[in-house]
Amino acid sequence: MEPIRQFAGRIVALPINDIDTDQIIPARYLKVTDKAGLGAALFSDWRYSADGSAKPDFVLNQPEHQGASVLIGGHNFGCGSSREHAPWALIGGGFKAVISTYFADIFRSNSLKNGLLPIIVDEQTHQQLISMAQEDALTEVTIDLESQTVRLPDGRAVQFPIDGFSKHCLLNGVDQLGYLLSLDAETARYEASHAARVNTFA
Amino acid sequence: MKTMSGGKTLFEKVWNNHVVRQQADDLPAVLYIDLHLVHEVTSPQAFTELRQRGLKVRRPEQTLGTMDHSTPTTPRGLDGIIPVVDSQAAAQLDVMRKNCADFGIPLYDLGTRNQGIVHVIGPEQGLTQPGMTIVCGDSHTSTHGAFGALAFGIGTSEVAHVLASQTLLQYKPRTMAIRVDGHLREGVTAKDIILAIIAKIGVGGGTGYVLEYMGEAIRSLSMEGRMTICNMSIEGGARAGMIAPDDTTFDYIAGRPSAPKGEAWDRAAAEWRQLPSDTDAVFDAEVTLTAEELAPMITYGTNPGMGMAITSRVPDPDHLRDVSQKLALDKALRYMDLQPGQPLLGKKIDVVFVGSCTNSRISDLREAARFIEGRRVADGVRMMVVPGSQQVKRQAESEGLDRIFKEAGAEWREAGCSMCIAMNGDQLQPGQYAVSTSNRNFEGRQGKGGRTFLASPLTAVAAAVNGAVTDPRTMVNQRGRA
Predict the structure, then answer these.
(1) ipTM of this predicted structure
(2) B160-169 confidence digits (pLDDT tens)
(3) Do A26 and B448 touch (CB under 8 A)?
(4) Is the pLDDT of residue B2 over 50?
(5) In chain B, N or C terminus with fewer CB closer than 10 Å?
(6) Residues 6+ positions from B398 with CB-CB distance below 8 Å
(7) What is d(CA B85, CA A41) in angstroms, rounded to the nearest whole number?
């Protein structure tokens, strides 16, 4: 994974509450066995008509919003299924961060493992970002992971929370599996003192 | 607030028993995973990760694969094989077979004796036991919490973590007690309890929490009913829901293929009896419902929190103060093509789906069969009954339930997730209305443009028979019984 430190990006607003992962990527696109190419299915049912044509009134189809890399979603973004295809599709669609007031737990965890930043801001900042994105498609924010801030066009820097471990992994471009594997001896000690509770071969 | 000296919750006891490394300031806890269930949709990329890094599966004997999501539920051919006509699904199933073979993981292949929905087969085999940690790349893994296990859905990266290390990085969640006092009235079931809970706390209300369901109404439920409740914890935003193990739990597990036997059973049962939350345990949040006040529930919107008593009217967005909620409800009603203030009773429906990891177990099918026996699916309505596993299917057939459904005009299918997730060709057509015993009414969940009313198996049967949303209580004391 590429290290993430700081990036600037244009924002686009999809201010709908409880956007579930079935909207982010409908289940019929999950019959794949790799991660690549899912960007084409991002928000597919909101984005395309039955005949496959792009719906002109859907915000991500509008020419002025092409190239946006920071999505402002409504409250409780990413609820529903555990499909990691949701962050894969968002990344495939060019997004580097999603901003909301809160995220569903599994989506948030999945995003952090793929370098898609789930950024939690207060309600007032959230509203402000939605308004700015809707008024001017060129609105850009700068996200700095080290200082955990989103810098708005007016210069205001808003702090966001992120757990220290995920931050460390993202800043250094290391994934979390390496850490778990490094604990092999501790895991073996646990296994030595706790008999396996089931045997799936039995 | 919690005190250091206070009693422990069920969740805390299970958590503490599985800590390989304690949570520290900047590090999540490392939790040991007792059982890892794997299915075809969320695992391929995890196996790819293992291959790329030259890793093995650490504990194949604590891992089990099944096929359920993209599998067809159409009848077997003359050769006894269930044909897979979707080439992309067929390829995904082949990858699953190869992955399980290459990494030495037991697999319940399509159509074999024990195959079925991942959250049906674990309990059915006796693999799901109190006090365990159980994960799967599937949000409805919360189902297994009905046994007093800590069970939750994980993403594919985490599937790779568990395959390779048998451990998982987790920050300790908060705890929420959900107490349901009293006794359910006739025609009101476990499904109605959980839909009422989600309507009360909202789809995000449980975010960051592990739920523990308790109270007389929960204790009175069968294991299947408890699984229905825990299954939908995620629809309230909680990764896990748990119910303390008791004699009902032990009776269900005893004698199953993977259940402990003899002395091992006695030791296990003694340990399990220590698991229930201590009387002085403190929860971070508490919610209370009264069973007598609950009616059969139905959803009217596009998330499971948009639910109401079946006799209620569709709420009016203009009555909501919060602008974002108003917009959400307005959007939902437009999708559902419903009007504010409209009753759902009498609303014509096209399809009835009885199945899914929420309501496809033998007791669900018995209940539905008893209610539909001697009645007929209304003209123009398609009713599908999809057993949760091959074992449930065999059991149902040995009891003649398949015949009852077929005589009533319903389709009796092979086991799988089917129209709950509509990946396998079992799906609604655009604009159709379904009453479904599944767990999600999201836009397009059961097929692009399809509209879902979530409800109990009884309410589903009532709708099938009348061709319209019907209160099952109004059908009590006719031939069937609610």
Answers:
(1) 0.98
(2) 999 999 999 9
(3) yes
(4) no
(5) N
(6) none
(7) 22
Judging contacts by C-beta atoms under 8 Å, the chain B residues touching residue A184 are 165
* Chain A residues closer than 8 Å to B156 by CB: 84, 110
Burial class (CB in 10 A: 0-12, 13-18, 19+), B91: middle
Q: Provide the CA B119 distance to its chain's centre, in angstroms.
A: 7
Which residues in chain A have Cβ-Cβ distances shorter than 8 Å to B70?
30-31
pLDDT, residue B26, reads 87
Taking the model in full, what pTM does it have?
0.97
Read off the tokens for B338. Answer: 């419903």
Given pLDDT bands bounded at 50, 70 and 90, which one contains residue B16? Answer: very high
Q: How confident is the model at residue B6 (pLDDT cuts 50, 70, 90)?
A: confident
**Cα–Cα distance list, A67 to A71, A116, B89, B188 (Å):** 11, 16, 33, 51
Q: Report how far Cα A101 is from the mean position of its chain's Cα atoms.
A: 13
Return the pLDDT at A104.
98
Of residues B465, B454, B468, the one with CA closest to residue B191: B454
β partners of residue A155: none
| pLDDT per residue as tens digits for the range B268-287 | 999 999 999 999 999 999 99
Place of tokens 């020419």: A63
H or E stretch at A71: strand A70-73
- Rounded to the nearest angstrom, the minimum Cα separation between A142 and chain B is 25
Beta bridge partners of B456: none
Residue positions counted in chain B: 482
- Judge whether residue B119 has pLDDT over 70: yes
Q: Using H for helix, E for strand and C for coil, what is the string for chain B? A: CCCCCCECCHHHHHHHCCEEECCECCECEEEECCEEEEECCCCHHHHHHHHHHCCCCCCHHHEEEECCCCCCCCCCCCCCCCCCCCHHHHHHHHHHHHHHHHHCCCEECCCCCCCECHHHHHHHCCCCCCCCEEEECCHHHHHHHHHCCEEEECCHHHHHHHHHHCEEEECCCEEEEEEEECCCCCCCCHHHHHHHHHHHHCCCCCCCEEEEEECHHHHCCCHHHHHHHHHHHHHHCCCEEECCCCHHHHHHHCCCCCCCCHHHHHHHHHHHCCCCCCCCECCCEEEEEEHHHCCCEEECCCCCCCEEECCCECCCHHHCCCHHHHHHHHHHHHHHCCCCCCECCCCECCEEEECCCCCCCHHHHHHHHHHHCCCCCCCCCEEEECCCEHHHHHHHHHCCHHHHHHHHCCEECCCCCHHHCCCCCCCCCCCCEEEECCCCCCCCCCCCCCEEEECCHHHHHHHHHHCECCCHHHHCCCCCCC
Number of cross-chain residue pairs from A and B with Cβ atoms under 8 Å apart: 217
